[in-house]
Amino acid sequence: MEKPLPEPAPSAAAEEVAERFRSLVDPDDVASIRQTQHLILGRLQDSNAVLTHFNEYSEQCFAEVSSDFASKTRLLKSMKADLDHIFTKLRGMKTRLAATYPDAFPDGVMSKTMDQRPDLESPLD
Predict the structure, then answer these.
(1) What family, per the record (predicted)?
(2) Which residue in 29, 79, 113, 124 is a FRET match for 43, CA 20 to 30 A apart?
(3) Are residues 121 and 77 in contact, defined by beta-carbon separation less than 8 angstroms?
(4) What is the three-class DSSP state of 104?
(5) Can you tell me whether residue 39 is helix, strand or coil?
(6) Whole-angstrom Cα distance, residue 99 to residue 46?
(7) How far is it, in rounded angstroms, from Cα 39 to Cα 44?
(8) Which residues of the chain have a pLDDT value below 70?
């Protein structure tokens, strides 16, 4: 049977390679990089704290006004429905007037004045 070879101790060549790698970088440069990274870390932590505070404040403000927005939205939708109903009634009245008194409306005027409201559903250009 073969005897297992003992693991060699770190050789002088390995130590030489490690020393050469360490000598590639100036220790002052490494210290400067670490200091800069520490400074950046501090600034990022401060920014994170400020953003967290701002998010909490924004959430609180939104909670305060969201019920107002919801009620105002319901009111506007109700007003729009009421106005649509009113304009529908007015169009019907104009049509009946034009049928009852055809002399009162010259040709082509009725189609122009039928509904001059802007379309509130379409986006503005």
Answers:
(1) Belongs to the KXD1 family.
(2) 29
(3) no
(4) helix
(5) helix
(6) 75
(7) 9
(8) 1-10, 107-125
